[in-house]
Write a structure and sequence with these properties.
CATH superfamily of one domain: TonB
Radius of gyration: 24 Å
Distance between the termini: 107 Å
Largest sheet: 3 strands, antiparallel
Number of helices: 4
Helix content: 25-40%
Strand content: 15-25%
Strand order of the largest sheet: 1-4-5
Shape: elongated
């Protein structure tokens, strides 16, 4: 009888260990970074302009003429709060370092799943850094 219980307990443990393969994941209710989560309404940024102003443009990057776009993937929780992020691509470390310092201050509306409930969701946010082009002088109109 003890062997039967032991074997059943082992099978139950194995069964529960493989449950994440059936649509869930091993990190609770947080989706994996590359997991597709169907939602009715994706999260919307609330304070993106403020956070981008906090990020600014690193002086060293400006001096070196570095510009481009840092692509960030942000995990948003059920309340619309930042959980964590990952830099997907960056033209230079100076720009990604600036993004890393302040991106956690971003706030979203929560994603709404197909059951009309808030859910965790990964959002892609591009942060653009563009140098101002110097004018090449005045144009003269010939008569």
């Amino acid at each position: 009888m003890k062997r039967v219980l032991l074997v059943l307990t082992m099978f139950w443990g194995l069964f529960m260990a493989y449950q994440p393969l059936q649509g869930q994941n091993t990190r609770g209710n947080a989706p994996l970074i590359d997991e597709v989560v169907p939602v009715m309404i994706p999260p919307q940024t609330i304070n993106l302009d403020e956070v981008k102003a906090m990020i600014g443009y690193p002086r060293k990057a400006q001096e070196l003429g570095i510009d481009g776009t840092v692509h960030v993937r942000i995990l948003v929780d059920e309340e619309g709060d930042y959980v964590k992020h990952k830099i997907l691509s960056t033209p230079h470390r100076f720009l990604s370092d600036a993004v890393n310092k302040n991106i956690h201050k971003i706030v979203f509306t929560p994603a709404i799943d197909n059951n009309r409930k808030p859910t965790m969701y990964w959002v892609n946010i591009p942060v653009h850094f563009q140098l101002k082009k110097k004018s090449k002088g005045r144009f003269r109109i010939r008569k």
